[in-house]
Amino acid sequence: MAKNSTKVGLIYDFDETLSIDYMQSFGLIQALGYTPETFWKKANLWSANNNADQITGTMYYFMKTAKEKGVSLTREDLKNFGRNIEYYNGVLTWFERINNYGHALDLEVEHYIISSGYEEIVEGTAIRKYFKDVFACSYAFGQDKQPVWPARVVNYSIKTQFLSKINKGLGKNDDIAVNEYTPDEERRIPFKQMIYFGDGMTDIPSMKLTKERGGNAIAVYTPHSRAKKKAMKLLVDNRVNFALPADYSENKEIDIVVKTILDKIATERDLDILKAKEEKKKHLQVTVNKLKCYKHN
């Protein structure tokens, strides 16, 4: 059967979805002289005391602390911290494996990050090359190459905007076009061809949106941890389609579920092609019948 190439979007949160901990915990926080537990308590307290959005407040607190301690946080410094990140089982082989599986079905699989972590750190990771785009928090840098202001803040509500940008095929800075009307047939990746992976509260609106629009949402959790209870609640509350252990190895649950979803997308695509052919035959036959009737009269 002749097939049309079909785009599929796999969209991931990063921290505790692909990586085993927050990306800042693999060297950045330690470079500031803190343990992750102590730093997050201080940063969150500062945000609360100053009525700041927690994500924005944390970005500022990193800048503030680094300046006080004389620690350099250039774009390259942050990128270097990304090289230390540890991932769940199977992540490092996941992307090529899924791409190859999709290719066999004539599916063009694209991977995206939507994260409240830092784009500069993601740029240094071993898996950055697999993502078509990264939508994450980012700093603006001054002439001394040090961060001076949060250039982009990604919280739970803004994550849904980036989902819409992926849906329409827009870049991260296309803020006007994302609100313009686009017919469904012109959207680059329909929601029904999206799979969203997340683990926490900031992912809930994106998970719900993906699921409600006909796509699939997967809540991942660290096996044998308290996170399983949180993921199961998302399943019970109908926020996600699946709650699965965060193991991306071949023939584990995530691998099997995602491949099955890809099978379904390919089958539905093939069925739509067959239906379209029958519709064409039907209209042709109707035209022939009309011509016969005209000649007979």
Brief descriptors of the model:
single chain, 297 residues, Rossmann fold, seven-stranded mixed beta sheet, 10 helices, 17% strand, elongated
Summed up:
The chain has 297 residues and is an alpha/beta fold. 45% of the residues lie in helices and 17% in strands. The protein is elongated and about 95 Å long.
Write the layout of secondary structure elements.
Elements: E1 6-12, H1 28-31, H2 36-49, H3 54-69, H4 75-81, H5 91-104, E2 107-118, H6 119-122, E3 131-141, E4 147-152, H7 156-168, E5 194-198, H8 204-212, E6 216-221, H9 227-236, E7 242-245, H10 253-296
Parallel strand pairs: 1-2, 1-5, 2-3, 5-6, 6-7
Antiparallel strand pairs: 3-4
Q: How would you describe this protein?
A:
The structure is a single chain. With 297 residues, this protein is of the alpha/beta class. It has a domain at 6-22 and 87-275: HAD superfamily/HAD-like (Rossmann fold, 3-Layer(aba) Sandwich), CATH 3.40.50. It is built from ten helices and seven strands. A seven-stranded mixed sheet has the order 4-3-2-1-5-6-7, with helices on both faces. Strand 2, helix 6 and strand 3 (131-141) form a beta-alpha-beta unit. The two termini are 41 Å apart.
